[in-house]
Amino acid sequence: MLGLALPLPGEARADSRCAIDDRGREVCLEQPAERIAALSPGATELLFAAGAGDRVVAVVAHSDYPPEAGEIPSVGNHARLDLEALLALDPDLVVGWITGNPVEQLERLERLGLPVFQLEPRDIAGVAGAIERLASLAGSERQGRRAALAFREGMAELAERHAEAEPVSVFYQVWDSPLMTVNDAHWIGEVVRLCGGVNAFGDLDRLAPRIAEEAVLAADPEVILAGGMGEANRDWLAHWSRYPELTAVAADNLFFVPPSLIQRPTPRLLEGAGLLCEALEVARGRR
């Protein structure tokens, strides 16, 4: 019933397949996955990109892309899974989120014999690699390779286009309470750099550090970029308008990027990166 490969020494099925997850563990299936549970919105997007969308039988809350994902049964949210509902759907592969899903619940699924492939892409290269590995487990390698190649080529084209761009100091707000940003090791920091931006908080140690509002005022970035509590909510940017002395405010360089396009490590990061690069070009034109 379960897809976990348990071959005898020296034995291997012709259609078995293995992939290394982002914990560094090898996950092997006896045959391509047919019933996949995606335990984060990002995992859902990556599976569809990998050509395995028609095999996804379970998702979690906020799995809103592609639209077809809305028709798939939800088994709770990423922070608290309904394991009874999940198990009733009889998945043969679970795609988990390393720092998003409860460790004890993922471990319980493994104890029950389910293969759990844990993902957490940390950079642009990791997105393409995740697509290819999921495609391998699902037996949709051709579509996965095409999607990964298109993503890599699109990012490379953006990087080439902005390679000689004049630097622009940037503050990216990833959350409002507590106030949070990203450092240069985060994929958003990588996108800022790709677009010719200089992350005002890029040298901080944590991937998504908490900062004080006073730190932003002291950094006085030329551009402020933010997502928000929704795909069209610009309230976070409106907050900074209270500080007309900020360079970004004085130049009207307050830009909104829909969070699902930039804060999920999925192929749509390419679209988000394009919007971010456009924002920095606008800022350069306002000097």
Write structural notes for this entry.
The protein starts with 16 loop residues before the first strand and ends with a helix. With 287 residues, the protein is α/β, with parallel strands linked by helices. Mean pLDDT is 93; it is low at 1-12. It is built from eleven helices and 14 strands. The chain has two domains: 17-153, Nitrogenase molybdenum iron protein domain (Rossmann fold, 3-Layer(aba) Sandwich), CATH 3.40.50; 163-285, Nitrogenase molybdenum iron protein domain (Rossmann fold, 3-Layer(aba) Sandwich), CATH 3.40.50.1980. The chain is elongated, with a radius of gyration of 21 Å.
The N- and C-terminal alpha carbons lie at a distance of 63 Å
Portion in helices: 25-40%
CATH topology of the largest domain: Rossmann fold
Domains, number = 2
CATH class of the largest domain: Alpha Beta
CATH architecture assignment of the largest domain: 3-Layer(aba) Sandwich
Mean pLDDT: 93
- What Rg do the Cα atoms give? 21 Å
Low-confidence stretches: 1-12
| CATH superfamily heading of the largest domain | Nitrogenase molybdenum iron protein domain
Element-level helix/strand string = EEEHEEEHEHEHHEEEHEHEHHEHH
Keywords: Signal
InterPro entries: ABC_Transporter_SBP, ABC_transptr_periplasmic_BD, Vit_B12_bind_prot
Organism: Halomonas campaniensis
Pfam families: Peripla_BP_2
